[in-house]
């Protein structure tokens, strides 16, 4: 045990220099070694796998990969809370069963109304306002809302081991991007503070927006129609659109990330695919093949043969969430 | 004259330190002073107009702003040459008057077929191949093609004063983006070498692309349908989508840039709008209100009252194109 802690905490190089462990919340094991070996290979000018800094692009899914996604995607929690808040001021907005369910915080009730009901709730919270009004709403919600089971701020439901990975990659010359099925305007509100990721390195789904010049000057208005669904085969498309290069490292947690991981590992040079596997029912949640959130089937079936790395949360991560400030 | 050269070439600071002129190809005058005064104000921590480096976003149109666009948009010249090249191998592809005109290099003939004919020529050159095949075609074309009147490579038809402005802004902590009506995949082929602008800082129009897994692995295929038209009111929308912040400096040359310049100068903080005005029929071209390329009407009508800066190519620029390597 003492020896294990020592090797996890520090690496003794042949020169005799002891470097701090770049991933202290990752237990020693295959997953941690695979990540560190990959980073060492692509950053070593003497390696066949060397990649110039400009091409060290790393992309990460957000829900279930960088932060939690249970018991419901946090952006849905936001939408539900927004509907409830507006209904307090004006109950007349509750024109459907889905909206009424949302106002009561009844997510099951919303889902019972089908996809249309969910889209109605999302549209109420996300459209009909300017991008800056929307972002202010998200910021206010993050300040007020607390996760139902942990009592944490939602932007503190982030994974400490992944924060360490992001920092480590940036220290090694990588650019770190979020490529999420979640909303681009939503994630940009907290990406910098939560992950150290600049807003221009956030890629996500989006609604149509329109440039409208009113009495108070121009504004970008969010419309109810979907502009781009950044999921599944949409992720490589969005990566090309926003980044313009194929990544060499990709992290995800569900089949919605399969194509992104496939694209990342299909280049001529080196590529690493990492799946975060939710296996820890005590410290987080345990789920993969079943349910409606973060479903992982094809990834589990094909990932191992493709040489993809699986971070088993229960065994590979010594810590899940960062220490809170409060 | 001697004194003018001296003041243009170097600034004598009160400390006695002589700094090189950051914009040597700009003649002394209102436009140059307006740009330098703005940059000094937003980078001086003691100034009311100070802007933190993370918010120093500058955006530039490409055609007619960073490189020339006469006698025809260079991307159309590319498309015409591509059709001609493919028709040599397979004349059967010339199934319409527009394509036949393209194969003969007859741009007037293409335009005579209307918008539909032009789109057909563009689709032939831009769709039905992977993004990487397309980029290789553009790179090959840039190596072979020469501008009809100057004999230069097309990527050497760039404006020396604007190259200096891009470098100056980056030296002063700005991020410099291209926001062009031209194709994003097209511009990314030369943005780094021509302008020092990384591919992830190129925003442009685009076709729909699809992720397709074939025998040779996955590829991003370019489809004939338009995904986004990055022109006029589309420019602020694309800026929000790709960059996520409002710029504080924008440069353009036509009414297609009006909304981008308006958006840039409508923020709470400082904002500078710069129009490149094509006034030099001898060294470049002289055009604004008339024609079908780079039409500038509203900008000329409203820009001066809005405090926008006009770079008069004939009087403000001592050099137009950089010295060629050949
Ligand atoms: Ca996910
Ligand atoms: Ca232009």
Explain what the structure shows.
The structure is a homodimer of 326-residue chains. In chain A, helix 3 (74-89) crosses helix 6 and helix 11 (234-242) packs across helix 12 (258-264). Chain A is built from 14 helices and ten strands. The radius of gyration of chain A is 21 Å and the shape is globular. With 326 residues, chain A is an alpha/beta fold. Chain A has an eight-stranded mixed β-sheet, with helices on both faces. In chain A, strands 1-2 form a two-stranded antiparallel sheet. Chain A has helices spanning 2-9, 30-43, 74-89, 97-103, 107-112, 114-126, 131-144, 160-171, 184-187, 191-195, 234-242, 258-264, 298-302, 313-316, and strands at 10-12, 18-20, 57-60, 129-130, 175-183, 202-214, 217-228, 249-252, 272-277, 309-312. Chain A has two domains: 2-71 and 157-316, HAD superfamily/HAD-like (Rossmann fold), CATH 3.40.50; 74-144, no CATH class. The A-B interface holds A 54, 131, 175, 184, 188, 198-200, 202, 206, 209-211, 213, 217-218, 220, 233-234, 236-237, 240-245, 259, 262-263, 266 and B 54, 131, 175, 184, 188, 198-200, 202, 206, 209-211, 213, 217-218, 220, 233-234, 236-237, 240-245, 259, 262-263, 266. Residues 61, 63-65, 253-254, 256, 294 of chain B line the site of one calcium ion. Chains A, B: Keywords: Signal.
């Amino acid at each position: 045990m003492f020896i294990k802690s020592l090797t996890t905490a520090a690496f003794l190089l042949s020169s005799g220099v002891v470097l701090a462990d770049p991933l202290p919340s990752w237990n020693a094991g295959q997953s941690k070694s695979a990540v560190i070996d990959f980073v060492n290979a692509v950053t070593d000018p003497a390696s066949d796998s060397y990649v110039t800094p400009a091409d060290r692009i790393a992309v990460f899914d957000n829900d279930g990969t960088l932060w939690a996604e249970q018991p419901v995607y946090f952006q849905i929690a936001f939408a539900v809370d927004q509907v409830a808040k507006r209904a307090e001021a004006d109950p007349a907005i509750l024109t459907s069963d889905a909206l009424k369910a949302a106002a009561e915080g009844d997510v099951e009730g919303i889902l019972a109304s089908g996809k249309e009901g969910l889209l109605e709730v999302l549209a109420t919270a996300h459209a009909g306002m300017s991008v800056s009004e929307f972002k202010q709403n998200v910021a206010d919600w993050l300040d007020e809302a607390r996760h139902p089971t942990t009592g944490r701020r939602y932007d503190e439901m982030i994974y400490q081991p992944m924060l360490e990975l992001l920092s480590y990659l940036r220290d090694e010359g990588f650019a770190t991007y979020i490529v999420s099925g979640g909303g681009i305007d939503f994630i940009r509100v907290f990406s910098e503070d939560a992950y150290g990721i600049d807003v221009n390195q956030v890629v996500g789904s989006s609604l149509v927006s329109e440039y409208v010049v009113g009495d108070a000057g121009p504004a970008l208005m969010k419309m109810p129609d979907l502009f781009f669904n950044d999921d599944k085969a949409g992720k490589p498309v969005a990566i090309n659109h926003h980044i313009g290069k194929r990544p060499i490292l990709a992290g995800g947690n569900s089949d919605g990330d399969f194509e992104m991981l496939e694209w990342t590992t299909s280049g001529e040079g080196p590529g690493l695919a990492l799946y975060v596997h939710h296996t820890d029912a005590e410290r987080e949640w345990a789920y993969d093949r079943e349910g409606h959130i973060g479903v992982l089937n094809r990834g589990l079936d094909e990932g191992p043969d493709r040489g993809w790395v699986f971070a088993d949360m229960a065994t590979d991560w010594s810590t899940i969430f960062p220490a809170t400030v409060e």
